[in-house]
């Protein structure tokens, strides 16, 4: 259910954040974590197949080895949170025997080394979704992405749309003209989606976006619209390789007509592409 290096935080009042399975072992994990905190000693415990918890079964029939690490000070958490807020890659190195953990601003691939009882856990930023466009699909996609805790930014010439989004945790920027490229700022962990019905609005903006770091760039519209877009981008000097990388029509399925279905199709495609990426070079 979860990849190596997945975290779950447990507090002394038995509240917790995150999960390590589909929900079948979390209560036992919390109980084990509280014992580790009380003893102030690290431990590694197996759950599922081969575990001393004979009454806890995993539906997959496998087993999970979970390391419990009582935190001796808050500085480690502070460094991690600072890096997450700054959208900076980082890694943790854990000494499994001693329970010591250290922070590094250098990203290292997640790996467990049984011979010397250490583990490296690499973190890169969560996906950010930049939505450029106007119309109901922008609002639907922005709200759905926030429900999944993605960082969302909306760039639009539509003032009514920006008011509908409100002043919450979705950043909005007004596009003054089709050549107003300054608001489109990205990093390698950004997905850029163009949701314009008026495709004349998107050409200069898309040409700029294609030169910015991103892991996904998609655009709404049918094949005729994309043929027009392709010729216009060629006219601005965009490379064939960059044009071929555009996901158009956008989304996992291409015949959706209502905004909510289009949002689901688009977000599913973005998340699928994010998990396909190897960000090793970008993270260094």
Task: Give a written overview of the molecule.
The chain is of the alpha/beta class and 284 residues long. It folds into 3 domains: 1-70, no CATH class; 71-123, no CATH class; 128-282, 3-Layer(aba) Sandwich (Rossmann fold). It has 9 helices and 13 strands. The protein has helices at residues 26-39, 75-85, 136-147, 159-165, 203-210, 223-235, 240-244, 259-276, 280-283, and strands spanning 9-10, 16-17, 43-48, 63-68, 90-95, 100-104, 111-113, 118-123, 128-133, 151-156, 171-174, 190-195, 216-219. A 5-stranded parallel β-sheet has the order 11-10-9-12-13, with helices on both faces. Strand 5 (90-95) and strand 6 (100-104) form a beta hairpin. The longest helix has 18 residues, at 259-276. The radius of gyration is 23 Å and the shape is elongated. The relative contact order is 0.10.
What's the quick description here?
With 284 residues, the protein is of the alpha/beta class. The chain has helices at residues 26-39, 75-85, 136-147, 159-165, 203-210, 223-235, 240-244, 259-276, 280-283, and strands at 9-10, 16-17, 43-48, 63-68, 90-95, 100-104, 111-113, 118-123, 128-133, 151-156, 171-174, 190-195, 216-219. The two termini are 28 Å apart.
